[in-house]
Amino acid sequence: MEQFIEKAIEWASNSGISAVTALLILILGIWGARLVREATRKVLIKRKLEPTLVKFGTNFLYGALVIFVVTAALNNLGIQTTSIIAVLGAAGLAIGLALQSSLSNFAAGIMILIFHPFKVGDFIDGGGVMGTVEELGVFISRLRTPDNKVIFVPNGKLAGDNITNYTRNEMRRMDLVVGVSYSEDVRIVKEVLLQIIAEDDRILKDPAPKVAVLELADSSVNFAFRPWVPTALYWDIHFDIMEKIKLRLDEQGIQIPFPQRDIHLYQAGESAA
């Protein structure tokens, strides 16, 4: 009986020490994981990475560290974790096979966040939709169209197609085509168009704007009208310029063939942002 009591006391003593040690490993490990997460977050923010990527990366690192700490604590208690890890691995594989499309979107989201072809606030054309990027998610991105519709686009669809970013650069070239009658003097028309550009202080002087005869079409002489403008003011200048062209040509008595199919209000594939 005495031997049984001694063994019980010895076991309780050893188990108690192991339990306290495991608890300390767990507490200190989680505390250390939080410190590492915060330090990593500050470093990534300093490097000006996307907020979504910073959040995902730091949370992933924290989760991995917590799993390592829990495994170490269980091992200290004498619990074999090999079988547990094997079960978790098999479960992860099954879940991955069941969520292939979601994982594809996830991988595409990570690629977008790393290479950042666009950022929040950019106006883009991608995945069959156009709009201003409001949120970059790991699986989907949220866009708002010019007519105030909200569209959620899977990242796999965005990354698997061409992406046109209209607002990434600080300036854009306005490509317009102005058609006039064959009876008009092309030198006078060119002078009028250049004067319209010179009168607008918002149009950039460098790069220099271009006005030239583009083609001799079936029913009109078409001029290329190509000034460079600040991206943020693109559509304001675009609408003003279109109105000025019409009014100024009318004032000068310069005829525009009817129907006015040679004056393009919009560039191909783009709507007003």
Task: Furnish the topology, listing elements before pairings.
Elements: H1 2-46, H2 51-76, H3 82-98, H4 100-115, E1 123-126, E2 129-136, E3 140-144, E4 150-154, H5 155-159, E5 164-165, E6 171-173, E7 176-180, H6 186-199, E8 210-216, E9 221-226, E10 228-230, H7 234-251
Antiparallel strand pairs: 1-2, 1-5, 2-3, 3-4, 6-10, 7-9, 8-9
Helix pairs in contact: 1-2, 6-7
Q: What is the radius of gyration computed over CA atoms, rounded to a whole number of angstroms?
A: 33 Å
Globular, elongated, flat, extended or rod-shaped: what is the shape? rod-shaped
The low-confidence runs, each spanning 5 or more residues with pLDDT under 50, are 260-269
Instruction: Please give the CATH class of the largest domain.
Output: Mainly Alpha
Number of helices: 7
Strand order of the largest sheet: 4-3-2-1-5
Euclidean distance between termini CA atoms? 88 Å
The CATH architecture of the largest domain: Orthogonal Bundle
SS content category:
alpha+beta
Q: Would you give the CATH topology of the largest domain?
A: Helix Hairpins
Number of domains: 3
User: Biggest sheet: strands, sense, closure?
Assistant: 5 strands, antiparallel
SS elements, strand count = 10
Features:
Helix Hairpins, 18% strand, SH3 type barrels, alpha+beta, five-stranded antiparallel sheet, 3 domains, rod-shaped, 273 residues, 10 strands, three-stranded antiparallel sheet, Alpha-Beta Plaits, single chain
Short description:
This protein is of the alpha+beta class and 273 residues long. It contains 7 helices and 10 strands.
